[in-house]
Amino acid sequence: MSSDQSSAGAKGPAKAAIDPLDFVDTRALLSGEERAITDTVRRFVDDKIVNRVGGWFENGEFPAREIAPQLGEIGLLGMHLDGFGCAGTNAVSYGQACLELEAGDSGLRSFVSVQGSLAMFPIRAYGSQEQCEQWLPPMATGSTIGCFGLTEPDSGSDPGSMRTRARRDGSDWILNGRKMWITNGSIADVAVVWAETDEGVRGFLVPSGTPGFGQYQIHQKMSLRASDTGELVLDDVRLPDAAVLPGVHGLRGPLSCLTEARFGILFGALGAARASYAAARSYAMERQQFGRPIAGFQLTQAKFASMVSALSQGTLLALHLGRMKDDGRLAPDHVSLGKMSNVRTALDICRLARTILGANGISLEYPVIRHMTNLESVLTYEGTEEVHALVVGKAVTGLDAFR
Fold this sequence. Notes:
This protein folds into 3 domains: 26-141, Orthogonal Bundle (Butyryl-Coa Dehydrogenase, subunit A, domain 1), CATH 1.10.540; 146-243, Butyryl-CoA Dehydrogenase, subunit A, domain 2 (Beta Barrel), CATH 2.40.110; 252-397, Up-down Bundle (Butyryl-CoA Dehydrogenase, subunit A, domain 3). 51% of the residues lie in helices and 15% in strands. It contains 11 helices and 11 strands. The chain has helices at 3-9, 32-59, 64-73, 91-104, 106-126, 129-141, 252-286, 298-326, 332-357, 368-378, 385-397; strands at 82-83, 86-87, 146-149, 165-169, 172-183, 190-197, 200-207, 213-217, 229-240, 288-289, 292-293. A hairpin with a 2-residue loop joins strand 4 (165-169) and strand 5. Helix 4 (91-104) crosses helix 7 and helix 7 runs antiparallel to helix 10 (368-378). The longest helix has 35 residues, at 252-286.
């Protein structure tokens, strides 16, 4: 057989088509159920959110009472919890849902994250049977909205310095204090409020309308505008002993909730990055300068290569951490690494995408500036980049740099 015949007859494997939005085919790493959940959430965001969220952002509003039941209908609220109307999905499915939600807007993902991981999770993990039966089913449907009261005006990264106090008064508790920067705070039907007591930090379920309990919306935000952010004021709020979460004492309670929420963020931030990268790519393919699309210029292609490389690495990290969580091997230190790394990655991608759109990059006609400003908040909330760096540093060295 001649060399020409040999080379003609030896055919290698067909070259796989490359999806510009999933360059290394991370979708192939998902199970059938995980792909189905991903697709369901993506359709919901495309159909119900994308065309409206720019207006919500501009007007500083989020129609929670309209959107929450729709989220509940497709099983997204408390989806990673078991029982009481919750879907009981695995961690990767929850992460993928967060990614698709944040591709719509960080405020949308924040709503789902706060509802499921910061309000429903502590009730499921540390609440009584009666508390679970009272609150979780309506929260899963979206008819009841929850919030998480930990951060205070003078206590952010150091929750151990909180000033909110709860004292016993007979069989009741009296709560006094303030909580700030609370997602869903002004609209919540129930707040999970953490307070210092003589027994250590305890969690309390505070229903809206309780005498002495004020809920106020925070205005003049330039980030997370399509999200409700509130202040909680507790002025001699009297609660029965049945309002206390019985299953946890100390900071382990609120910190475990934050770990759950941060896990969703390390996936979610990549959704904002992907949406910004996709918008920049679409724009560059159509935008003509010097007689041809700007996507054909070397510097623009170098930006795309940088973005797709970072997005691919971040997605693979998120999926790996999700598998570790499903295997029971994920530590809070791992979540800190993922949150720190992927939010920074997402913010860098959004900033680079903004440059490709030029002046159009600051217009709400495109999603990039909205995602970029939102991520400035995501970089800070639920643990600043600096705090997570110290968590990782302590895990690496064994030395505590906090104190």
